[in-house]
Amino acid sequence: MTAFDAVLFDCDGVLVDSESITNRVLCTMLNESGWAISQEQCTRDFIGKTVRSQATVIEAHTGKPLTDAWMAEFYERRNAALSAELVAIDGALEAVRQIHALCDGRIACASGADRAKVEMQLTKVGMAPYFEGHVYSGHEMPRSKPFPDVYLAAAEALKADPAKCLVIEDTMTGVQAGVAAGATVWGYFPADQGHASAEQLLEAGAACVFGDMGDLPAMFDAVRKSAASASVGEDDEHDLR
């Protein structure tokens, strides 16, 4: 197995427990705009996607244009709720700290969300120092997930071959983006997660799935040691020739 030179993390649902908060605010505002959508359907339809990318769908159900003013209000209400309620995914802060050390700092956060949200969330849960200078937003790319642009930008900035990058994702859209970038993707699938099954993450291209972020450093280190051992074995074979 190839050793990884860098680790690229998604943010929402991987590092921070934000998705239920954001979708609650979105669901409330869509209902206020005339779309009688349930929280469950809102989660299914919007998880892993930007609101603006679904403008046609929203406008079809509300009968109103998705205006900049509506989006500004959404961001304001969303950020207020996140500021009040956001917590880190269990085990994520320690996992990031350890992976940062194991990778000599070559980690990045590559999210489909807007930069202000990502940076605010990382700061709130104490992860910002580990990603300083290496936060990438799909809003700033030509295309957002499921296209690979944000992961390719992160890999390039870290001077890492995408084929030697490990991506951590929790949605089908994100997994598809990592695979399209040429990276290896591990799907995070906690037991209480409800928007994508482990089977769906694997079908989208994840090399494996795991359910506890606290397990990530040991999994990563095992791959690193296995690759190092294989390299030593290859050197020994050359010595015998």
TrEMBL record:
UniProt-listed Gene3D superfamilies: HAD superfamily/HAD-like, Putative phosphatase, domain 2
Classification via Pfam families: Hydrolase
Signal peptide: none
Keywords carried by this UniProt record: Hydrolase, Magnesium, Metal-binding
E.C. no: 3.1.3.-
UniProt-recorded Gene Ontology molecular function terms: hydrolase activity
NCBIfam families attached to this UniProt entry: HAD-SF-IA-v3 (TIGR01509)
PANTHER family on file: 6-PHOSPHOGLUCONATE PHOSPHATASE
Family per record: Belongs to the HAD-like hydrolase superfamily. CbbY/CbbZ/Gph/YieH family.
UniProt name for this protein: 6-phosphogluconate phosphatase
Species lineage: Bacteria, Pseudomonadati, Pseudomonadota, Betaproteobacteria, Burkholderiales
